[in-house]
Amino acid sequence: MAEQDIPDEYLDGYARILADVSATGRRLTRDELDSRRVLGERAAEAGYGLRALVGAHLAATRAHWPGTASADSVLAATAQAVDAFAEGYERAQRLAVRQEEAARREFIDDLLYGRSDLGLLAERAERFGLRLSYAHAVAVAQGASAYDDGDAVPREVERALIGRFGDRSILLTTKDGRLVCVAPGDQDEVLAFFAKQAYAATDGGQIAIGRPQPGPGGVVQSYEEALNALDLAERLELGAPVLRAADLLVYPVLTRDRQAMADLVLNALGPLQQGRGGAQPLIDTLSAYFDSGCVGAEAARRLALSPRAFTYRLERIHKLTGADPADPVHRYTLQTAVIGARLLDWPAKQF
Hints:
- InterPro entries: CdaR-like_regulators, CdaR_GGDEF, PucR_C-HTH_dom, PucR_C-HTH_sf.
- Pfam families: GGDEF_2 (PF17853), HTH_30 (PF13556).
- The chain is an alpha+beta fold.
- It has three domains: 95 residues; 117 residues, CATH 3.30.70.270; 91 residues, Arc Repressor Mutant, subunit A.
- The chain has 14 helices and five strands.
- The model has no long low-confidence stretch (mean pLDDT 90).
């Protein structure tokens, strides 16, 4: 903004203060400094640039230079006045930033928890570059540490996203110590890139991607799917760096009827509690067996057992449960029961 565009109201009283202070050599009084700060705040709130405002003060200094005053006294008075003006300006800017951050955080909380009227939420979303009338998908990344918006990791990931995609209606934030990325549902490449960058920035963290969901409530649905995927990964010990909720739909189906799953676990695996050391070592044996594609040698290696010791365990399971892990029909029941035991945290939690 050019100097002539700065209204005189933001220089109100400056010429008088300049003449009086320069003539006497005194410093500006507290009231005079406060008046400069107030004008600086008002100028910032009005949207004027600080560079143009400083230029306007220098132009006013030349125009109202006291003829009998020394250069040192005039420049000292100018420096004090401009410094106080800039202090007020910066104070207003910091307040505006804090208010903007608070508004953004409130919006993100409402967006991810679905606590606001969906119509109003959609209106607020446009301010942050989201059009909630379209489908959106959410990816959530968690690492060994908790992250806040101002931390180095979120900034690093955000720079990478902006550098690659620019402005594509992408929202990157943090929530409960995790990184969260919201992107249009038809731009899977954005979330895939986010997952790659987040994995590197978090030193091998885990990322879950929810399915695209339509409408203003779609973001919270996709976000919850991503969180559930991370929870499943922890309980089932899924070590994949990137999890897609679409690939894990079988697990919510299995746990939809919790009582039925609990009955299956107790019926199929309950007899294992009679084994030496309880049920858990034998459940771990079944888990390793199924996770290795029912290859006994590989399962034994994962458990640090000899093939003979591993075979003995399978025989023990067969004897206690009456189900043979090597039999395809029995295998399905046992594997489903093992998954249910993990999901229900059995036998650590009895039911």
